[in-house]
Amino acid sequence: MLGPVILAASRSDRMRRLISAAPVTKQVVDRFIPGETVDEIVPIIEDLTGKGLELTMDVVGEDITRPEQAEAARDAYLALVDRIKDLELGERVEMSVKLSMFGQALDGGHELALANVRPVVEAAAAIGTTVTLDAEDHTTLDSMFAIHEELRRDFPQTGCVIQAYLFRTEADARRLAENGSRVRLVKGAYKEPAEVAYQQKHEIDKAYVRILKVLMEGAGYPMIGSHDPRLISVAQELARRAGRKLDEYEFQMLYGIRSDEHLRLAAEGHRMRVYTAYGTDWYGYFMRRLAEKPANLRFFVRSMITKG
Question: What pTM was computed for the model?
C-alpha cells in the first residue's frame, strides 16, 4: 500500500525539499490549493458560491514549533473572517481549523490552542458562520474533543470531525449525535497503528457506513466527507430512512476532486460544501491528498513525467 509510504514522506524534510523544488509541483498543487493569500482566494469563493455551492475554508499549516506561529495562524483566520464579512457570505462560508496549527503540540498546548482558536470561533459567530475542528492523529483527539466541548458551551454551532478508520469513532459518534451538534465524518488520512485503527479499505468502508447510520439516526447535523460514489449513495439512502430533509445534512468534498459531482449534488438540492485550502505551507496537506486516493498520486506522477 502506497498510502502509508506517502504519509511518512509528508513528515520528511528531505522529501519536502525534493518535491517542492520539482518544476511541475506548483501546477499540480494548484489543483488542490488554489491560492496562497486571502486576496487570491476571494475569486474562488465568489465563483463557487455563485454556482450554488457552500465552502469550508482551511488556512494550511500544521507543524509549528513556536507560540508566535500559533498566534500568526489565529491572525490569518481572523483576516479570513474579515474578508468573508466583506463579501457578505457568512451563511455560505465556514472555516475548518487544525488545532496543531494553533499550538496544540507545544508546551501547555491544550490551553494555548483553546486560547488561540476561541477568538476565531467568536469572530465567526459574529458574522453568522462557524468553525469546524479538524481531526488529526489519534494522540490529539482527546484534547480536540475537550476543546470542542468547551467551545460549544458558548458557540453550540461549533463542529468537529471524526474518522471512520479509528476503533473509537463509533462510540464518539454516539456521544456527539445530539441536538445541535455538527459532525463531519471522514475515512481518515493519517498513518495510524493497527492497535487503534482499521488498516484495510473494506473494513474502513464498513465502519464508515455503521458510523454514518448512527449520525443519521441521531439528533445532530451530519456532514458526509467523502468522494466515494457508493458511500454517497448509501448516505442518501440512510438520510431517506431517517426521514431527513435535504437541508438536514450535507455533503463535503475537497476542492479539485470530482468537481462535476459537486455541481450535480447541488443541482439536486443537496447542501454541497467544498473544502477549500489556501496558504503557503501546503506540503503536508498536499501529501495527504495523494495518500488518500491512488488517482491523485497517478495524476501527480503523470504530470511530473510529462511536464518535468
Answer: 0.87
